[in-house]
């Protein structure tokens, strides 16, 4: 898809898989600095192992942010104006070195009072390199509607 999909071009059932990204130590450290979340399970291998993990665990919200980035640069993408809601569950830890990838499916859409926008609900999933479901949720987007500039 060469252009982001406008509201009228989006149909319930549309589904796609994003590219993937490997979660690095740099991602975790930088996210800790940005968010202020220096919780030991993210920063201290020994603490994480004592808690039952094989090593440090990436922040759940880091992986959600990475999913949003993967979604926004996917071959299929939306002419989004704003995110209105995230309803989200964290199922499994993401470890440094894991490769994550998103699966996106349009659940439904509805028009708004304004003709230049609509609301789209997306089912989102994050899977690791082994295909294991790591995170999942609902993303509600406000999406631009109307004719394309080149169509006018």
TrEMBL record:
<feature type="domain" description="MaoC-like">
    <location>
        <begin position="19"/>
        <end position="125"/>
    </location>
</feature>
<dbReference type="InterPro" id="IPR002539">
    <property type="entry name" value="MaoC-like_dom"/>
</dbReference>
<dbReference type="InterPro" id="IPR029069">
    <property type="entry name" value="HotDog_dom_sf"/>
</dbReference>
<dbReference type="InterPro" id="IPR052342">
    <property type="entry name" value="MCH/BMMD"/>
</dbReference>
<dbReference type="Pfam" id="PF01575">
    <property type="entry name" value="MaoC_dehydratas"/>
</dbReference>
<protein>
    <submittedName>
        <fullName>Dehydratase</fullName>
    </submittedName>
</protein>
């Amino acid at each position: 898809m060469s252009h982001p999909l406008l509201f009228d071009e989006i149909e319930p059932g549309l589904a796609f898989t994003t590219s993937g990204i490997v979660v690095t130590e740099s991602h975790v450290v930088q996210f800790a600095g940005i968010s202020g979340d220096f919780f030991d399970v993210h920063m201290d291998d020994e603490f994480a192992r004592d808690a039952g993990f094989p090593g440090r665990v990436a922040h759940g919200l880091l992986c959600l942010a990475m999913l949003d980035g993967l979604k926004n640069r996917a071959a299929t993408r939306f002419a989004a104006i704003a995110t209105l809601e995230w309803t989200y569950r964290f199922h499994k830890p993401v470890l440094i070195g894991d490769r994550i990838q998103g699966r996106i499916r349009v659940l439904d859409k509805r028009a708004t009072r304004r003709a230049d926008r609509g609301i789209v609900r997306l089912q989102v999933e994050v899977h690791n390199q082994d295909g294991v479901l790591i995170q999942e949720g609902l993303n509600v987007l406000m999406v631009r509607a109307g004719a394309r500039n080149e169509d006018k």
